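User: Predict the structure for this protein chain, please.
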Amino acid sequence: QVQLVESGGDSVHTGGSLRLSCAASGYTYPIRYMSWFRQAPGKEREGVAAIYTRVGITYYADSVKGRFTISQDNAKNTLYLQMNSLNPEDTAMYYCAGSYGLIRWSDTKAYNIWGQGTQVTVSS
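Assistant: Here is the predicted structure, written as structure tokens:
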């Protein structure tokens, strides 16, 4: 059984940077997409970025393009999200997720595995 554990969340000021990590354990080979989602209080969970694990193709929400970078280290079974130029609208709980199927990357229903989340807070 695959488990995902996020880390790296913190409190920063506007303009700051953070790098989130998601360590995967278990039989991860069948996972085709790894993604980051976020959920702010009172809002729906939204897709932030995704990577097609087989070839490294990446996808981003318009709100984070040019500021966030998703990457993977296959040797370490770890997914990363480098977040730069953070602003208060980025404040949320960030979740790592994995999907076994070919999907619309931002659809939460398509993901089979979720981490417990890591909190990112950006203050002005």
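DSSP finds no helices and eleven strands in the chain.
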